[in-house]
Structure formats: structure tokens, C-alpha cells
Design goal:
InterPro entries: TOPAZ1 (IPR038952), TOPAZ1_dom (IPR029435), TPR-like_helical_dom_sf (IPR011990), Znf_CCCH (IPR000571). This protein has 29 helices and four strands. It has 635 residues and is mostly helical. Helix 17 packs parallel to helix 19, helix 21 packs parallel to helix 23 and helix 26 packs across helix 28. The chain starts with 20 loop residues before the first helix and ends with a helix.
Length: 635
């Protein structure tokens, strides 16, 4: 026992603001009564200052296996009270529990550190050594600062009898994987000199320091796999992901056997992946990746390892719907310029996942995290690849890609980002890869939705490109939208494009056939078409009859235009038809040069019949026939 006689305070609860014993007991009692215990636990032992005084108690004095959270809560309560008897009981509980149980997810590293510090403040050095020995056995080490506090405590009170146990415990902690910096060694040696210990004890610490120096500052150190794995676990318990990254680089540099390096890499990836499944702040992978790249900026093998581990961590976050954290992993890979889309995952199902699936998952994470640009970046980075000889995928991957891209398009449309939406549509499954057995005709609806959105926003550029793409892929264009595009182009004075699409619309059957009527010098125009479409029909009519109009006997010819009603339209439905008449007059006026129409009669179908003045028609042909002949004389 390393306690000092005559130096201990008379009251064990010296840290309470009010030092009267009855008030201290009352405060402690109130705190102890707040512990929530299961029924089988001894309430006298756990919830009173005196403890259980029964010779044989039928209730539990040690938390049950699986009740680690209760164990931590009890220890935390005792630490907060700071009473010497309770602290000794805390040591008993810790030692008995962890002799039988391995630390689990509920183990609180801070509780361990606080307990050790509290024991030192209450001069319970022997109990502190008990705790340290147990931590070595369960491979759950305290913070380096706590170990330094133990050395400081022994040195400040000049407890020379404790030095052999102190040195022995120090060696056990180092062998278990505790990692010290060189300033820590120097400080420990300074304290040992202060204690005037033997040279043999000083040399023990110096030898350990020399061993660390050989391992961590030269490139040819002997790889100690067990020590590295212990240090990795220590970093995990401390949540020191930066140090884990540095340790990985050092280990990889000194490792001579590829099997050991592979085991180490898989172990780290497993740790990072499992930690991602816990609901805690921060993204350990990011700190780890930064440390690796900082210590090994140009090593391609390390970059590949980071990329593969990142895929596994990303998918782990995706499984638990942690979209923001998953995005942080992807942002880090992007920041470090690691092209993960050409890599496979490192552990689990990700090792067998197709490239299409990995890209789908990454894009989905960006999408669910609210980053459309991020989702599109991942897809571009992968060159929108789905199925390929080197990267085969199954039908489920193709379907998921289809659904993902459609979701992306709808989000872009809601934000009026039409060009981005069109880029995504062009890369739907079936367009990029001939091995994709996808019927692209099914995309007609979503393409037409884009064109309609562009039409409403008067975005003629994207709608024209979309129509061109659809026509090249034999995807059906909605006739109403195609006519709207023709009208929009004409009203924007983009007549050349309007004429091109009008000819296409004619060939697709968008308008009633004209060929038979044209040769009889009669032009039937549906009343519902726009003034642009009417003018284009008139242009075609003029070019088709150009030889007759320009012949010497043309004065006797009659060119008629009939404003056709719909088959189901009755005579009483005149408002829409009247608007069509006005559009026909407007079409003649916007022509360059102007054309003149003369009302002739109303036929038996109650349709207005007009004659086209030959003089204006002749003038129009004289000025426009050179280009018009090339445009309208087609098969």
C-alpha cells in the first residue's frame, strides 16, 4: 500500500463545497438514489455509502454480463461523489466485471480516465495500479496523459517504494500497445531522475524509447505485427483516427510480408466501417484519410486503399440512412482526387459489387443529401457506365440506375435546370451501351416532360436539342410539343430551324396530308394551327406551285386556301374558328414580302375559303425561290 501516513485529509469528501459530514452524506445519498438498477442488484451495495453488510447476500454485487451501460453509469456516479469508500468500491466493480467481460460498445473511455485521475487525487495509488493491470488484460488502455499523471503522483509524493510496480505496469502498457511520443519518454525519465531511481530502472525506460525510435523514425524497422494491431485497437478505443492513419503508413512502410499488410488493411477498413454504423458525431474515415495522404502523398497503393475503404464506409452509411455522413466520405475522396469509381470495395459485399452499383450508391447518397451537382459529378466521373465487359452488372443494377436518373431529372426540372436534366436523360440505360437490353422507346414520356417544361419557360435551345436527340433514337415526340417548338422558333425569327422541324412534323403525320391538294392549287389549313405553321404551309404551297405561278398564263390561275374545321366541330363552335381566321390573316402579313388574301366564300362545310393574290405570290417567289426551292422541294 503506497498511501502516505499523516498526509491524507481528515474528511474523504473534501471536494464538496460544504464539508459538514451530515450534509455530505445527504448529498451523496441523493446522488446514489438516482441510480436506476434492475431488480436483481443489491441496492445496499450499489446505492449506499456503507455498502452491503450482509454475511451472505442473495443479490448481485457485480453487474451482469451485457449490462455494461449500467456498469458505466454506476462508476460515473461514484466518480462524481469522490468519496474514498465509493472509489474503492468502483475499483472492485470494474475489476470484477472486466475480468469476465470484454469491453463492448457501451464502454466509456472517459469514465476509465476519470476513475484513474480520481483515485490519484484521493491517494489511492494501489487501486490505480489494479485498474491499470486490468486494462492491460482487456486491451483497453487509458490515455497517455493519465499514465503521466501516475508518474507525476509518485514523483511529487516521493513514493520510491512504488517505483518497481510503476515500471512494471509501464512496461505492460507499452507491450499492450500504448503509443508514446518522444517528449513523453523524456518527461518520464525526468520524473524518474527526480525520484533518484536506480540506473537499471532508468535503462528500462531508455530501452523502450530506443525501440520506439527505431520503429517510427527509420524506414527499415522490424515489423511487429502484433504490436501494430494492438496500437490500432488502442487508436480505435481512443477515437484517434489521425494517429491510426499515421500508424498505417508507418506499418505499411516497414511491412515485409504482403499477407500481414493485407490483414492490417482489412482490420482498419473493418474498424472504420463498423464505426460508421454507430450514431456518433464526426466521420472517422475523413480524419484517417487525411492522415494517410499527409504522410504518404504520392503513394498510389495508399490512395487505392483509401478509395476502396471509402467505398465500404460509404455503403455502410448508406445502409443506416446516414446520408450527410456518407456525403462527407465522398467529398473527402473528391477533395483528395481519389477516383473511387474505378475501384472495388474492400470488405463484405462491396468486394463483389459492380461498378454500376457502386456509382449508383454514391449518386444516391449525394441525391439524398441534397447535392444534385454531386450526384451528377459521380455519374460523369464514371462516364455514365452501366454494363461493360470489364464491369458487368445485372438487371437490378440497370433498373436502379434508371430510377436514380429519373429522380435526378425530376429534381433538375423542379429547379428549372433544363440543360442538366437533358444531360442526364441522354445517359439513361440503353443509350450509352449496346449491351444494355433496354427499349429506349419507353423514355418518350420523360423526354416530352422535359420539352414541355422548356416550352413553358421558352427555352428553345434545350427543347430543340431534346427533339433532335429523340428523333435520332426513334423516340416518339408529342405532336403538340413539336408544334409548340415550331411556333416558338418562328416567333423568335428562327425560321430555318422552324422549317426543318415542320418538314419532320409533316413526315411524322403531325398534320393532315397535303400532297394531293397541293397539285390542285388548293391548300387546306387546319384552323387550330398557329400563324407560324400556317405561313410555313403557305410557303410549301407556293414552292409546290411555283412553275404555274411564274408561267406566262398565270393570271388565269386561282390559288385557294381553305381554313379547315375539325370533323367533330359544329357550326355553333365559332369562337376558336374565328381566332384561326385571324391567325391566317396574320400569317400573310408576317410573310416577307407580305402576301395578300382575299375572302371568296364559305363552302358547304361552313369553312372559309380564301384566294391568294397572284401578284404577291409571284413577288414572294421572285425574292425567296433561291433558298425556298432547296428547303421545300423534298421527297
Amino acid at each position: 500500500d503506497y498511501r502516505l501516513s499523516g498526509k491524507r485529509p481528515s474528511l474523504p469528501l473534501q471536494n464538496y463545497e460544504d464539508s459538514e459530514p451530515w450534509k455530505v452524506d445527504k448529498n451523496a445519498k441523493q446522488i446514489l438514489e438516482m441510480i436506476d438498477l434492475p431488480r436483481k442488484y443489491c441496492r445496499f451495495y450499489f446505492m449506499t455509502l456503507r455498502g452491503c453488510e450482509r454475511a451472505k447476500c442473495w443479490f448481485w454485487h457485480v453487474p451482469e454480463q451485457g449490462h455494461e451501460k449500467i456498469c458505466m453509469a454506476i462508476l460515473k456516479t461514484y466518480i462524481s461523489i469522490k468519496e474514498s469508500g465509493l472509489l474503492k468500491r468502483a475499483v472492485q466493480i470494474f475489476v470484477r466485471y472486466y475480468r469476465e467481460v470484454t469491453p463492448g460498445e457501451d464502454f466509456a473511455f472517459q469514465v476509465l480516465n476519470d476513475l484513474l485521475i480520481c483515485l490519484l487525487k484521493n491517494y489511492l495509488l494501489q487501486e490505480a495500479f489494479q485498474i491499470l493491470n486490468v486494462t492491460v488484460q482487456i486491451n483497453t488502455l487509458p490515455a497517455v496523459d493519465v499514465l503521466l499523471k501516475v508518474f507525476e503522483h509518485v514523483a511529487s509524493l516521493n513514493i520510491r517504494d512504488a517505483v518497481p510496480t510503476l515500471i512494471s505496469t509501464f512496461c505492460k502498457l507499452i507491450d499492450a500497445g500504448m503509443f508514446l511520443e518522444f517528449e513523453h519518454f523524456n518527461y518520464i525519465i525526468k520524473l524518474l531522475h527526480q525520484l533518484q531511481v536506480s540506473s537499471q530502472e532508468i535503462n528500462t525506460v531508455l530501452n523502450i524509447k530506443s525501440r520506439f525510435q527505431e520503429r517510427h523514425f527509420t524506414g527499415n524497422w522490424l515489423f511487429d505485427f502484433n504490436l501494430v494491431m494492438a496500437e490500432i485497437q488502442h487508436c480505435k478505443l481512443k477515437n484517434d483516427w489521425t494517429k491510426m492513419g499515421t500508424l498505417y503508413v508507418n506499418a505499411r512502410t516497414g511491412c515485409e510480408h504482403s499477407d500481414d499488410l493485407q490483414k492490417l488493411s482489412l482490420c482498419i477498413a473493418e474498424i472504420l466501417t463498423r464505426d460508421s454504423e454507430k450514431d456518433r458525431p464526426g466521420v472517422p474515415f475523413c480524419d484517417f484519410a487525411d492522415a494517410v495522404i499527409k504522410n504518404s502523398p504520392c503513394n498510389e497503393a495508399d490512395r487505392i486503399f483509401i478509395g476502396r475503404a471509402g467505398i465500404s464506409v460509404m455503403n455502410s452509411y448508406r445502409k443506416v440512412l446516414q446520408w450527410i455522413k456518407g456525403r462527407k466520405v465522398l467529398d473527402k475522396l473528391h477533395e483528395l482526387q481519389i477516383h473511387f469509381t474505378v475501384l472495388k470495395g474492400l470488405i463484405g459485399a462491396e468486394r463483389l459489387a459492380s461498378r454500376c452499383q457502386i456509382v449508383n450508391n454514391a449518386a444516391e447518397i449525394f441525391l439524398k443529401a441534397g447535392s444534385l451537382d454531386g450526384a451528377t459529378w459521380v455519374l460523369r466521373e464514371s462516364e455514365w457506365t452501366t454494363n461493360a465487359p470489364l464491369w458487368p452488372c445485372d438487371e437490378k443494377d440497370i433498373l436502379n440506375r434508371h430510377n436514380l436518373l429519373c429522380s435526378l431529372v425530376h429534381k433538375y426540372l423542379r429547379q428549372s435546370l433544363y440543360r442538366q436534366a437533358f444531360e442526364v436523360l441522354q445517359n439513361l440505360p440503353g443509350f450509352q451501351n449496346s449491351s444494355d437490353t433496354v427499349d429506349v422507346s419507353q423514355y418518350s414520356c420523360i423526354f416530352n416532360k422535359l420539352i414541355n417544361a422548356c416550352f413553358e419557360s421558352k427555352n428553345l435551345g434545350v427543347s430543340s436539342s431534346a427533339v433532335d436527340f429523340m428523333l435520332s433514337k426513334n423516340i416518339a415526340v408529342d405532336f403538340f410539343l413539336l408544334r409548340g417548338l415550331i411556333t416558338g422558333l418562328g416567333r423568335s425569327c428562327l425560321w430555318s430551324k422552324a422549317r426543318t422541324y415542320y418538314k419532320t412534323a409533316l413526315s411524322l403525320g403531325c398534320y393532315p396530308p397535303l400532297q394531293g391538294s397541293l397539285h390542285h392549287k388548293i391548300l387546306p389549313i387546319p384552323f387550330y394551327v398557329s400563324e407560324v405553321e400556317m405561313l410555313l404551309a403557305i410557303e410549301l404551297f407556293l414552292v409546290s406551285n411555283a412553275s404555274d405561278i411564274q408561267s406566262p398564263g398565270a393570271a388565269t390561275q386561282t390559288l385557294q386556301i381553305i381554313l379547315k374545321r375539325c370533323e367533330d366541330q359544329t357550326v355553333q363552335n365559332n369562337s376558336d374558328y374565328q381566332a384561326g381566321m385571324e391567325r391566317l390573316i396574320l400569317a400573310a402579313r408576317v410573310s416577307d414580302p407580305k402576301l395578300f388574301l382575299k375572302h371568296v366564300t364559305v363552302n358547304v362545310n361552313m369553312e372559309e375559303v380564301y384566294s391568294l393574290e397572284l401578284t404577291s405570290a409571284l413577288k414572294w417567289l421572285q425574292e425567296n425561290m433561291k433558298w425556298a426551292g432547296k428547303v421545300w422541294l423534298f421527297q
